[in-house]
Every structure is written in structure tokens, then in C-alpha cells.
From TrEMBL:
Cofactors demanded by this protein: Mg(2+)
InterPro entries assigned to the protein according to its UniProt record, in alphabetical order: Cas9 (IPR028629), HNH_CAS9 (IPR033114), HNH_nuc (IPR003615), RNaseH_sf (IPR036397), RuvC_III (IPR041383)
Species, as recorded: marine sediment metagenome
Name listed for the protein in its UniProt record: HNH Cas9-type domain-containing protein
Molecular function GO terms recorded: DNA binding; endonuclease activity; hydrolase activity; metal ion binding; RNA binding
Length: 766
């Protein structure tokens, strides 16, 4: 009887089983004071349905009744069910009708009927835990290993079936289609790269006896930290329960995760229900509109461009606004229109983690290093946890040993610091040969972490974790400081190894699918062209419009290489108005200029109320994608947005020339770009390809970071965060820029670096 309700308070359960004073359940925390019981029994044993009779039915009859209730899809099936309950279970029509309409829990269990039946039988035969009952059945409650000894890691979807969206199951399909995949792209790529690395190690050295994974998290939490986490969980849990009640009692909707998410997004539009407006139109969204088809959940920054499915990037909007927005940011759609004033006024109601996504530079900010680091940490935490389960598949568990275990990232950092590995001279800037202030600018710092992990045993982890539990900082640091290096000269040996490491980079060659192209389903490795449409002029230049508030100082300065303001008088006025301004001051100067009716000489401002500025620039024919009318005359153009590869050719007369193949060109049917029928290609380089070349009298290995008509922009293979550091004026690092002739003289050629850092150099072409 105690377990017949929907939930049971743990305090009440403690009294029922006569717990001693001071004893508690391990599940009992500040945010969890009850456990779910038997919701099916609670529903069907209601007095208006089966009542007490439900408990007298045998298990088979109960299960048949449940299956019949869940299977009803039509009025006729409902009528048949009522008749069956009356004839087989002895219910009168009123109780049979109520039972046929009984609410049952949504969802499904991970185990099927066969496994569940066997586990139940084991639990009934003896007093034991669930895990023991599973063991009696010949299985393990959490170990996904099958007992098969794998020679190499298969595709992760075959092993981690609990974590992937199921695939087709068809053997003829490729692995991703057949087994499914994890939707997080960082984790998907990370696990595939892990498989390649581990399988390469196995091929060369055999299967490792132990694999240690660094877990991207802190050491054990102190009691205060645990209580703080529990408070947050309880606050979120209480809010979810309240939303569930509102859905059922006020809105007449089912209490599901999807419905609670819609309600949460609606609440996020404003503290007051009267200020909960569509962020794109300013129109009020009432509670009754949430489930009548009027609203959509939208990604503020397009998911296809950011892969950001976080709550902070989602909002609730009207369906028609979502259709207008499409695959663009709010600023790209409405930034230069009168509607922006309404949108801007509504931003004050949104949380800060959403409102910044409406800014003109939202995409640039999203792609910035700081935001990426925060996202990458969450991805890495999940990746490191799931990697352990994946690697466990290599071992059958028959020897009773744990061959795969984890080391907390905090521990690695402490030991690396106390062993003096942070300031290794080996981790130097490639140009200045000076010790880096932050070794995270050198990819080889991961190798140092690996060395520390390999030298860490489980007893040390336990000692430090136990100390950290009592004193989060001082305790763990004290133990780490007392641990000597693994052997004398450890630091120097690691420094020597660092000099020999060649970092492997994942090349981006894109995907040109000729079969899919024929059926109209080709995919690209980058955007075919920029979203901006350019008007064409008789002078051969192109013209575009840009919102006034999105201008930067370099847009106003006259240049011979980029875009200039087409109206020379406007350019002069803007230059005067913004001179000396930067950041917020620059933006304020633009606003003041557009809102000022009089110029400094007291004449009327002809640009009063200005919203958009026309820019004129030269766009090379090779970079121009023209759209033609029915007569074949071009009337607008787009700028090619990405380059597919960079090629160096030798003409019959010995002249060395280069050409850039754009992504748009590559995807044209029958495309072939050869400068001369008898030309010989000396080099084809894609982004992230590895290039060997001679520089300053020595051979260096670089990777391709950018491809431009001016040549390749290269970074030494050890350099990390190269793009951001090249843009940083205070960072000494700069790309190595080389054109066709310079690359030819430097004996540049593509080389292959395998997962273990071994180099395969084909040498120069004949």
C-alpha cells in the first residue's frame, strides 16, 4: 500500500522500514525528498477505475490490460476495449469507460519485455539489489561490454547505442546511417578522431594494457559546493514542476519536456506577462497562443551556422516572423529596416545572454575565442566522460581489471605546474624563440598533459581527491606539491621529446559528391557565396548597402583596396563627425550625426534620418558570381564566400602561376580549371593541409590556415589559436604568407602526418 501512490516521501519510507535515528537514504538530498512509486498502479487502482481489484489481478492480466489501453487508436478500438474489460475483468460500463481513458506514463524503458521479465523473476526469488539481479541473469547493469575481444575500435555508434540517435540498422548503409550518431558535432568528431588514434597505436604497438583519459572537471567537490549545486538543481526542479502543473491545470496540455520548454521560453520573454512579446515583431504572445500553432521556437543565431542548440540561443517567436528570418541573424534581416526600432525597444525584456545575439557583430562575437572556449569546455566534459565507455569496449572484462580510467583535469594542471613543466623552453614562439607566457598557444601542451597523466597512479588520485574534498584548494595543492617527479631528469626528458613532436591537424578537403549532385542533393564544404547582393555599375564596380550603425572606422576611411562610401560628401561628413572616436564613442557619433538637423556650419543636414549607406568597391571577375536576366545580361552579383583549394601550376614555358578554386566553382557541373592544356600541377593545398618547406635555411612543417588569391597563409604546426593571435596587434605571432613563386622556391609540398605524428613526405614532384 505504501508504494501504491505516484510518489513517496523518503521520510515516510524511512518510517515504514524503521530506519534508525541519523540514518538516511543515499538518494536523499536538499533537492530530492521523494521517489517515484508505481504510477501505472496508482492510475489504474483509482476508485473510479479498477480500484482495489487491480492488485488482485495476476501479472499477465495486468500487462494485457495495459497493452490494450496503450494500443487504442480509434473509437471502435476504444469500444472493443470497454467490452473486453466488462467481460474479462468484471467491470461495469462506467468503471470500464473510466479505465479505458486512464492516463498512463509517457515514454518507454531501455529494457524490453524479455529482459525485464527475467530481472523481475530474479528479484522475486531473493532479497537483492537491482545490479545483483542483473548479474544473476548473466548481464551487468552498467557495463556495456559484450565479452567480445575487439582487435580495434569500431565506429562509436556501434558501441554507444544508448547515446546516439538510432540509425537505419541496414547493413548496406554506411556506419553513420546504420548505427546513428551523437548530434553534438564536437563530440562526434572527437570520438572519430579518438578511434583513428587508438587504432593507429594498436596497429603499431598492439593493444594498450591501460588507457587513461583526462576528465575535464574539478576534483571532488566540497560539501559547500555540493550544497550549492543541489540548491541550483532544486530551484530548477521546482520551476519545472510548477510549469508542469500550469500546463495541465491552466492550459489543458500534457506535462511533457517539449511543452515545459515552450513555457520556459515564454517566461524568458519578460518578467511580466504583459511584456512577453515576440522578439522580432513586438507583438504580444499570450499563454493561449503557445499551443495553437501561432508560435515557433527559433534559434536566434542560425543553428546551421553556429550548431548552438543551447537555451540561450533559443527564443519563442510568432510563426510568420520565423519564416521571414530564415537562416539569418536578426540584424541581417531587420537591421537596416524601420522594424529595428521595435526590436531594439523589446530587447530590454530579454536576458543578457540572449540580447547580445541581436547585435550587428553577434556572429563575430559568437565565433570569438572566449565564447568558443566556454562552449568547448562543456563539449570536452561530455566527450571525456563518454570516451571512457567507448574505450572500455576494447577489453572483455574477463580478468576483472579496469583497463580504462580517468584523471581529473584539475589534478593534471597541479602536477604539471609543480613539476615545472609549464615553462618548458621547448614551447617557444617560432619566430622569437622565447618562452611563451601561456603554453596554450602551443599545441604540444597537450603532449605535456599526456605525460603527466601517464605518470599518475590511482593511489595518488585518491589521496589528492580526499584532501580536496576536505579543503578544495590548500589540501590538494599540498599533496601535489609533495609529489616528486616520476624520475630524475623528467623535465629535461619531456623537453627533448617536445622538440621531436610533429602535430597532426585534421585537413578540411570538403565533400564533392558527384552522385548526389545528379539528384540535386549536392552538399558543400562552405558557403557558395556571401549573402550580400551587389548592384553592378557601368564602371565595372559593384555597389551594396550597409546599415549606418554597422559601419566601422575603416569603412569611412578612403581606401584603394576595399569598399568606399559612394557619396564623397557623406564620406567627408562622417569622417569629421567620427574623428577620434572609438568603440561606444564612435557609435554615438554615428547616431548623433543621423539625428542632427544642422551641420556645424548651421546648414541643413541632408543626411538627417540616415539609416543605410551605399558602398562601392571593385570585385574581381573571378570572385564575382553574376545573376543574369532572361536576355543573359547580368543585373546583380554575389561575392564568392569560400575558397576550395589553392593550386600552383607550371606552364609549358616554365612560368609558375597560381590559381584559387572557389567553392562555388567546384560545385558547378563539369567544372575543370586548368590554366593551359599542357600545364603541370605542382601543388594543390586545402585548408589544414600540412606543408613542408624550407625557410631561413631549415625545413619547417606548417599547416594551411587561410587560402586567398595572394597566396597561402601558413602557421607552424605547433601554433594554436593562430587566427585569433594573428588579428591581435599585441601578439608577436603572424602568419607566414607565401605566393606561388615563393612557395616554389621554398620547395613547398604537401606531406602527410598520421595520428601518431609520423611524417610521410612524397618529396618534390619531378
Amino acid at each position: 500500500k505504501t508504494l501504491s501512490g505516484m510518489a513517496l516521501k523518503l521520510k515516510a519510507l524511512g518510517k515504514a522500514i524503521k530506519l534508525h535515528p541519523g540514518q538516511t537514504f543515499t538518494l536523499e538530498t536538499a533537492n530530492r525528498d521523494a521517489i517515484s512509486c508505481d504510477p501505472v498502479r496508482a492510475s489504474l487502482s483509482h476508485p473510479d477505475r479498477y480500484g482495489a481489484r487491480w492488485s488482485t489481478l495476476d501479472w499477465g492480466t495486468q500487462w494485457e490490460g495495459i497493452q490494450r489501453i496503450r494500443a487504442v487508436q480509434s473509437d471502435q478500438e476504444h469500444a472493443n476495449l470497454v467490452d473486453w474489460m466488462m467481460s474479462e475483468n468484471g467491470l461495469d460500463r462506467e468503471h470500464a469507460e473510466a479505465t479505458a481513458n486512464a492516463p498512463l506514463p509517457e515514454g518507454y524503458g531501455r529494457l524490453g519485455l524479455t529482459a525485464t521479465t527475467q530481472i523481475f523473476s530474479a528479484l522475486e526469488d531473493r532479497v537483492c539489489t537491482y545490479s545483483d539481479a542483473v548479474t544473476v541473469c548473466g548481464w551487468h547493469h552498467s557495463d556495456g561490454r559484450t565479452g567480445e575481444v575487439l582487435e580495434q575500435l569500431p565506429y562509436y555508434g556501434e558501441i554507444l547505442d544508448r547515446h546516439v540517435i538510432p540509425g537505419s540498422g541496414i547493413k548496406a548503409d554506411d556506419d553513420i546511417t546504420r548505427y546513428g550518431r551523437i548530434t553534438n558535432p564536437t563530440v562526434h568528431i572527437g570520438l572519430n578522431q579518438l578511434r583513428r588514434l587508438v587504432n593507429r597505436v594498436i596497429t603499431v604497438h598492439g593493444r594498450p594494457d591501460e588507457i587513461v583519459v583526462e576528465l575535464a572537471r574539478d576534483l571532488k567537490q566540497s560539501e559547500d559546493q555540493k550544497r550549492e549545486v543541489q540548491k541550483i538543481i532544486k530551484r530548477n526542479t521546482d520551476a519545472a514542476i510548477a510549469r508542469g502543473k500550469k500546463l495541465v491545470e491552466d492550459l489543458g496540455q500534457k506535462d511533457t519536456g517539449a511543452h515545459r520548454m515552450i513555457l520556459r521560453l515564454w517566461e524568458d520573454l519578460g518578467h511580466d506577462v504583459m511584456t512577453r512579446n515576440c522578439p522580432y515583431t513586438g507583438k504580444r504572445i499570450s499563454a493561449t497562443m503557445l499551443f495553437d500553432g501561432s508560435c515557433d521556437i527559433d534559434h536566434i543565431l542560425p543553428y546551421s551556422r553556429t550548431l548552438d542548440d543551447s537555451f540561450a540561443n533559443r527564443t519563442l517567436c510568432l510563426k510568420e516572423a520565423n519564416r521571414q528570418k530564415g537562416n539569418k541573424t536578426p540584424w541581417e534581416v531587420w537591421g537596416d529596416t524601420p522594424k529595428w526600432e521595435v526590436i531594439a525597444a523589446n530587447l530590454t525584456n530579454l536576458p543578457d545572454n540572449k540580447s547580445w545575439r541581436f547585435a550587428p557583430d553577434a556572429m563575430e562575437r559568437f565565433e570569438g575565442e572566449n565564447d568558443f572556449t566556454a562552449r568547448a569546455l562543456k563539449d570536452t566534459q561530455y566527450l571525456s566522460r563518454i570516451a571512457r565507455s567507448y574505450l572500455d569496449a576494447l577489453y572483455d572484462g574477463g580478468d576483472g581489471k579496469s583497463h580504462v580510467w580517468v584523471v581529473p583535469g584539475r589534478l593534471t594542471e597541479m602536477l604539471r605546474r609543480h613539476w615545472g613543466l609549464n615553462g618548458l623552453d621547448a614551447l617557444t614562439d617560432s619566430d622569437a624563440q622565447t618562452v611563451k607566457a601561456k603554453n596554450r598557444t602551443d599545441h604540444r601542451h597537450h603532449a605535456i598533459d599526456a605525460a603527466v597523466i601517464a605518470a599518475t597512479d590511482r593511489s595518488l588520485i585518491k589521496r589528492i581527491s580526499d584532501m580536496a574534498k576536505r579543503d578544495e584548494n590548500a589540501g590538494a595543492e599540498e599533496i601535489a606539491r609533495s609529489v616528486p617527479p616520476p624520475w630524475e631528469g623528467f623535465r629535461n626528458d619531456i623537453a627533448t621529446l617536445m622538440q621531436r613532436i610533429i602535430v597532426s591537424h585534421r585537413a578540411d578537403h570538403g565533400r564533392i559528391d558527384s552522385v548526389a549532385r545528379k539528384s540535386g542533393k549536392d552538399s558543400t564544404s562552405g558557403q557558395l557565396h556571401n549573402d550580400t547582393a551587389y548592384g553592378l555599375t557601368d564602371a565595372g564596380t559593384v555597389v551594396s548597402r550597409k546599415p549606418l550603425m554597422s559601419l566601422k572606422s575603416n569603412d569611412i576611411e578612403v581606401t584603394s583596396r576595399g569598399a568606399n562610401i559612394r557619396d564623397p560628401q557623406l564620406q567627408k561628413h562622417l569622417l569629421r563627425a567620427t574623428r577620434g572616436g572609438d568603440g561606444k564613442a564612435f557609435e554615438k557619433a554615428l547616431v548623433d550625426f543621423a539625428n542632427t538637423r544642422k551641420l556645424p556650419d548651421n546648414s541643413d543636414n541632408p543626411y538627417f534620418g540616415l539609416r543605410r549607406v551605399r558602398l562601392e568597391e571593385t570585385l574581381r571577375a573571378s570572385a564575382r558570381i553574376e545573376i543574369r536576366d532572361q536576355n543573359g545580361k547580368p543585373f546583380k552579383a554575389y561575392k564568392g564566400d569560400s575558397n576550395h583549394c589553392y593550386e600552383i601550376w607550371c606552364l609549358p614555358d616554365g612560368k609558375i602561376i597560381a590559381q584559387v578554386v572557389t567553392t562555388f566553382e567546384t560545385h558547378q557541373p563539369g567544372f575543370e580549371k586548368k590554366p593551359h592544356p599542357a600545364a603541370k600541377r605542382l601543388l594543390r593545398a586545402f585548408k589544414r593541409d600540412m606543408i613542408a618547406l624550407e625557410r631561413d635555411g631549415r625545413e619547417i612543417i606548417c599547416y594551411v590556415q587561410k587560402i586567398k588569391p595572394a597566396g597561402l597563409f601558413l602557421a607552424p604546426h605547433t601554433e594554436a589559436n593562430a587566427d585569433a593571435r594573428d588579428r591581435d596587434k599585441e601578439d608577436s605571432f603572424k602568419f607566414i604568407q607565401m605566393g606561388a613563386s615563393t612557395l616554389f622556391k621554398a620547395k613547398a609540398r604537401r606531406v602527410h602526418i598520421d595520428e601518431m605524428g609520423r611524417i610521410r613526405d612524397p618529396g618534390l614532384p619531378n
